[in-house]
Write a structure and sequence with these properties.
With 633 residues, the protein is an alpha/beta fold. Helix content is 36%, strand content 19%. It folds into four domains: 209 residues, Histidine kinase-like ATPase, C-terminal domain (Heat Shock Protein 90, 2-Layer Sandwich); 138 residues, Ribosomal Protein S5, domain 2; 94 residues, Rossmann fold (3-Layer(aba) Sandwich); 133 residues, Four Helix Bundle (Hemerythrin (Met), subunit A) (Up-down Bundle), CATH 1.20.120.790. It contains 20 helices and 23 strands. An eight-stranded mixed sheet has the order 1-8-7-6-9-4-3-10. β13 and β14 form a beta hairpin. α10 packs across α11. This is Chaperone protein HtpG. InterPro entries: HATPase_C_sf, HSP90_C, Hsp90_fam, Hsp90_N, Ribosomal_Su5_D2-typ_SF.
Length: 633
Amino acid sequence: MAKGSIRVQTENIFPIIKKFLYSDHEIFVRELVSNAVDASQKLKTLSSIGEAKGDIGDLRIEVELDPKEKTLSIIDRGVGMTQEEVDKYLNQVAFSGAEEFLKKYKGQNEENIIGKFGLGFYSAFMVSERVEVYTKSFRDEPATYWSCDGSPEFELYSIEKPDRGTKIVLHINEESKEFLDADRVKAILTKFCRFLPVPIYFIDKSAKAEDKDKEEKEEKPINNTTPAWTKKPSDLSKEDYENFYRELYPFGETPLFWIHLNVDYPFNLTGILYFPKIKQSYEIQKDKIQLYSNQVFVTDEVKDIVPEFLMLLHGVIDSPDIPLNVSRSYLQGDPNVKKINAHITKKVADKLEEIFKNERPSFEEKWESLGLFVKYGMMTDDKFLDKANKFLIMEDAAEQEGKKKFYTLDEYKMEAETLQKNKDGKVVILYTTDPIQQDAYIQAAQRKGYKVIKMETLVDAAFINQMETKWENVQFTRVDADITENLIDKNEEQSSVLSKEEEEKLKGLFGIQIPELHVTVEVKGLSTDAPPVVATRPEFMRRMKDMGAMGGGMASWYANMPDEVTLTVNGNHKIYQGLLKEDDTQLQEKQVKNLADLALLSQGLLKGNALTSFINRSVELMQGEKDLVVEAQ
């Protein structure tokens, strides 16, 4: 029997390790199970090169809970350790056996080794009052026992142990009783270990005692040792990808499609990224991509690795080349991270372009969900923007023969080249943010041969503003931003049949004060089939208000300003020929007010008391017309 003190390589950091090594104490399960996986993977490597003789057998790992004894044990059948190795690896903090092994056997078909820093084992002391190790090496040497109570003092001596491998017994302390709860331990195993490459079995000794008289249940590992991302794409079917998605997200809807990442140079990267269905903008959820290192779960905070716009994707990324800090919980700055980020962007862009070129009808069907990813990417990543210009599509506000029609930017420019170029040579892209509410404006534009597209998602306001600065010779104008004749250029003048005096009188009648609105009135000679009054909202101010409503910056100031609206009175509409001759001033004012309210209603600007007044006034006017008819009879 030997006694001694643990040798710390730099300074005595044991109390720090015990209390503060990891921010989440549950991480000890991941670290110890990862070590057990390493021990198993090392044995596979040694067996493959003939250094470990004989049949290596079943390399399963067991996590055994004994609430009665207040212990949690991790048992493996891997390489084990000699007494010399125990002294070397457990009594010298931060001496990583995994790192030494990788250096020694580099290039000799080594299996994926997880441990890098040699501190993971000591995470056991965050939750234990004492830790015991029973281990027997694959080499023909006696088994070893090691024990420590969290102080620098340890016990080390030879024991009898029939089987190769290591058993670590944690005597859980009073503050960490939660880790004696079977459901809690199973949840941690599922979170961190469900895709580790060695079968892991959870054994609850208290449950076994209760079920001893019952029929023995079939043992099942808690993990899938060969998840889809570890296989070649050519070996996977559509059903395999969809089943794996359900494994990751049991309640998720079948994804649109996926991208299988498989890179081994200049960095190692595997994974599967899924495009989820998103029918409404409010369904967007970030932090759904999981980061793994050699199949060990690390984090779902992947913002440094995955481009911001692709944080909306779901799936898995696995890379041993992503540098992690000692607790594997946060990414460190490194050139590889930028390279991986750029590679993922390129892969996604290439996949989208491929689907667009080869399966455009299918691409268009999925656009409701895809559009959010594509537009978000175009706003935040200029390299993605260059590629996405080819496959961004815009939906026509009008269906043709019951089918949706889509344009790429180049296709829209060709369609609009003749009628929708302004005096500055820019193509004016007319758009609607609400096809139902703005239907009258859309129809008026379409009668002139204009093409109106839909821009109705949460990201579209920002997207429009950015694309005007990034696309050459393009200008966006909402279809209700002006009267139809002025949407492209404000230089089309048409004379009114009214005299100057009549125009001024009409303008005066429409000079209505509305507290919530800033109203400007103009009288113009529009076509006779145009409405008697058209309400429009100036593009710039409306955009500022929309952006302000989204919050942030100077734009928030605009959100509190009154809505600006222009009432364009169509002097050529025949309704005014009778209205201007009306002797009953009160009736004349009511008719004018109703015409103005109808126009405001088309913009969704008539609400509350103003809407109630409009309804009551309309009934009153209709009743008056009915009385006139009765009198005439």
